[in-house]
Amino acid sequence: MYKHLVEILEDNTETNGYNQQLRQSMRHIAYIYCQRTEAGGRENLYASRIVHENQCVYTTRMRSGIAAGMFLREGGKMYRIEATQNESDRWLHLTVTLTGAIDNYPLPAEDSSDDSSDGSDGV
């Protein structure tokens, strides 16, 4: 049922007192498996709720700590989570808009134990 592995990220942007952006980064929250429901028109999701055009709903088991405003990354595309719906404390539905893909956000820093760079330029 859950075929799609997605990553949940949170915006971790730092600003100063004048609301100027100092550093922009993403913080990893979780990897989860989801079922993807994408509508080419109107399609029933659950309890007569519909998935509108250009929207996609990812359904997973209920999990705390995921909220609207976070980001969902599947494959090479990242989407802002617009809404979350809790279905009887069993399922969590994450709604994203497909036309709102974000391409230029920085990825979370990878922890690498391999320090192969010695500061030389390789010449």
Could you characterize what this model shows?
- The chain is mostly beta strands and 123 residues long.
- It has one domain (4-13, 22-100): Thrombin, subunit H (Beta Barrel).
- Helices cover 0% and strands 50% of the residues.
- The protein contains no helices and ten strands.
- The chain has strands at 4-11, 14-15, 21-23, 26-38, 43-46, 49-51, 55-61, 71-74, 77-87, 91-97.
- The strands form three sheets. It has a six-stranded antiparallel beta barrel with strand order 1-4-7-10-9-8. It has a two-stranded antiparallel sheet with strand order 2-3. A two-stranded antiparallel sheet has the order 5-6.
- A hairpin with a 2-residue loop joins strand 8 (71-74) and strand 9.
- The protein is globular, with a radius of gyration of 18 Å.
Which structural traits does this protein have?
123 residues, mainly beta, Thrombin, subunit H, 6-stranded antiparallel barrel, two-stranded antiparallel ribbon, disordered C terminus
What is this structure, in a nutshell?
0% of the residues lie in helices and 50% in strands. By secondary structure, the chain is an all-beta fold.
Described by the principal axes of the CA atoms, the overall outline is globular
Radius of gyration: 18 Å
Arithmetic mean of pLDDT: 76
Give the uncertain stretches in residue-range form.
Answer: 112-123
CATH topology: Thrombin, subunit H
Strand content: over 45%
Count of all domains? 1
Number of helices: 0
CATH architecture: Beta Barrel
Total beta strands: 10
Largest sheet: 6 strands, antiparallel, barrel
Measured between the Cα atoms of the first and last residue, the distance is: 52 Å
Helix content: under 10%
* Major sheet: arrangement of strands: 1-4-7-10-9-8
CATH class: Mainly Beta
> Which structural class do the helices and strands define?
mainly beta
- Would you list the SSEs in sequence order as H and E? EEEEEEEEEE
